[in-house]
Write a structure and sequence with these properties.
The longest helix has 56 residues, at 44-99. The protein is built from two helices and no strands. It has helices at residues 9-35, 44-99. The chain is mainly α.
């Protein structure tokens, strides 16, 4: 199996995830604003459910943003790990190349 990932893949992914986080927060705020005209129109269980939704909308937004922040943190950690792994692989290759005896590999008939 071959795993090939460009150097900017995780940076791009993090940028897009951050944009999605911002967009999600805006969409939730729009949903709450769209529900404003309905306030006071419900009675009984409908009113309880509506009031609960409004009261919990900030909590829901924070929970979603917290989850997305966790995803962004994981993506950042992956970017760090892949970057240091790539650098370490290059350093190991240079070290092994420096230690190699290329003269011993010559197949001349001397």
């Amino acid at each position: 199996m071959k795993f090939d990932m460009g150097t900017q893949v995780l940076s791009t992914l993090m940028s897009q995830s951050q944009g999605s986080s911002d967009e999600l927060g805006a969409l939730i705020r729009q949903l709450v604003a769209a529900a404003e005209p309905l306030e006071g129109k419900f009675n009984g269980a409908g009113k309880v459910a509506f009031d609960s939704f409004k009261a919990r909308s900030d909590e829901i937004t924070q929970a979603l943003n917290s989850a997305l922040a966790g995803i962004l943190g994981g993506q950042s950690g992956m970017e760090t790990a892949f970057g240091s792994g790539d650098q370490e692989q290059g350093e190991n290759a240079r070290t092994q190349e420096g230690a190699a005896n290329f003269d011993a590999a010559r197949f001349s008939g001397r």
